[in-house]
Write a structure and sequence with these properties.
This protein is 38% helix and 19% strand. α6 (118-129) packs across α7 (155-172) and α7 (155-172) packs across α10 (287-306). The protein is built from ten helices and 13 strands. The radius of gyration is 20 Å and the shape is globular. It has a seven-stranded mixed β-sheet, covered by helices on one side. Strands 1-2-3-12 form a four-stranded mixed β-sheet. The protein has helices spanning 2-12, 26-36, 45-50, 66-75, 90-103, 118-129, 155-172, 257-260, 262-278, 287-306; strands at 57-59, 80-82, 108-110, 135-143, 176-182, 196-202, 207-213, 221-228, 231-234, 243-245, 248-250, 285-286, 310-311. With 327 residues, it is of the alpha+beta class. Bound molecules: nicotinamide-adenine-dinucleotide. Nicotinamide-adenine-dinucleotide (NAD) binds at residues 1-2, 22-25, 28, 45, 60-63, 65, 83-84, 111, 113, 159, 257. Nicotinamide-adenine-dinucleotide binds next to loops.
Length: 327
């Protein structure tokens, strides 16, 4: 993701350039820096963050490192776009929230890029228009071809399903109150509980179903349907062409999230930079949204262990985070 983000900034974002790259794998850092930052590799992450030549920071290191790096950006007073999740636990997200509020400026955006995806935006606009009545339910399918061997048992929820938690809040303008995790017969191709079916209950009484299957083999497949009183809004396959041959019609699935959400990643970064330059709040997910997604995930991990519906526990939202982008 870091390489992709650097290439987007270098090629598709006006008023920004890549000043330097850091990666714990130096060869990786050098190859991305050669393509995007005139070869400039920082000494380490904290050096890059405090460098007076960097005006803003994008974090795409592993989940467990995010909160510390975001806190360093806040200490340096720099805007930061942090890949999801903001942190794997709500407790670490709260440390970010406390630090951001103490600084008195909204500097953190979380990379829930689906909020910028044209298909989700169109679906939200249609449902919100009220033309087909109030929203009753939401169905989400989230399938990856495969996840790496180091993926830990709780990561389907803390790393993958967090996308669905954030987009459900965005589409429904509603908060998630309770989560249940059902465990169907697991695939023999992985040691994870895979698939899982997650059922979310919202504060306004809607149900959200999530069919989460991370070793689905056939490709990357994300689908969503909003069920309203007098109709539904369904995401169509985002491919550009279907092939008809040999008596069949076929379309391709992306191998992973990058081609599927390429427009979303680009629009997210473009808006982030425009917002920094204009001195306005970015349209993407805030640290508060990052905290909520991780709090739902924490309840989901409990529900996975217990098999029971589990309440989502949230601290009350500070005035500092009240804005139009959050429910
Ligand atoms: N928004 C999305 O759709 C999306 C998709 C995939 C991944 N992600 C997120 O992006 C992040 C990176 O995922 P990835 O798939 O690119 O993983 P990756 O393993 O391909 O890349 C992570 C990189 O971080 C480097 N790294 C490890 N520890 C580091 C440290 N302490 N300091 C600096 N660099 C360090 C590694 O060397 C590696 O190059 C994760 O948090 C993941 O959740 C988001």
């Amino acid at each position: 993701m870091g390489g992709d983000h650097a290439r987007i900034i270098a090629s598709s974002v006006g008023r920004a350039h890549v000043a330097a790259i850091y990666d714990a794998d130096l060869d990786r850092a050098k190859s991305v820096a050669a393509a995007t930052a005139e070869g400039r590799v920082a000494k380490d992450s904290y050096d890059l963050i405090s460098d007076k030549n960097t005006g803003a920071v994008l974090i795409a290191s592993p989940d467990a490192t995010h909160a510390d790096f975001v806190l360093a950006c806040l200490r340096a007073g720099k805007p930061v776009l942090c890949e999801k999740p903001l942190a794997p636990t709500p407790e670490d997200c709260l440390k970010v929230i406390e630090a951001e509020m103490a600084g008195g400026r909204r500097l953190v955006q979380v990379g829930f890029m689906r909020r910028f995806d044209p298909s989700y935006r169109e679906m939200k606009a249609m449902a919100a228009s009220g033309r087909i009545g109030p929203i009753l339910a939401l169905h989400c399918v989230h399938r990856n071809a495969a996840v790496p061997g180091w993926f830990e048992w709780m990561m389907p929820i803390t790393n993958s399903a967090v996308h669905e938690f954030d987009i459900a809040r965005f589409l429904l303008d509603d908060e998630i109150a309770r989560i249940t995790v059902h465990k169907p017969k697991p695939s023999s191709l992985t040691n994870l509980q895979d698939p899982m079916f997650l059922v979310l209950e919202t504060e306004k009484g809607r149900l959200v179903t999530i069919d989460l299957f991370l070793n689905a083999s056939y490709g990357y497949d994300v689908r969503t349907e909003i069920v309203c009183e007098r109709g539904t809004v369904t995401m169509t396959p985002p491919d550009l062409s279907h092939v008809r041959s040999d008596g069949r019609e076929a379309f391709s699935f992306a191998a992973d999230w990058r081609p599927r959400f390429s427009a979303a990643y680009m629009l997210q970064t473009q808006d982030w930079v425009k917002a920094i330059v204009a001195g306005r709040l970015p349209a993407g997910s805030s640290a508060w949204d990052g905290y909520v997604a991780s709090a739902v995930a924490a309840a989901g991990v409990e529900a996975l262990k217990s098999g029971r519906p589990t309440e989502v526990k949230l601290v009350s939202r500070p005035e500092f985070y009240r804005d139009l982008s959050s429910p």
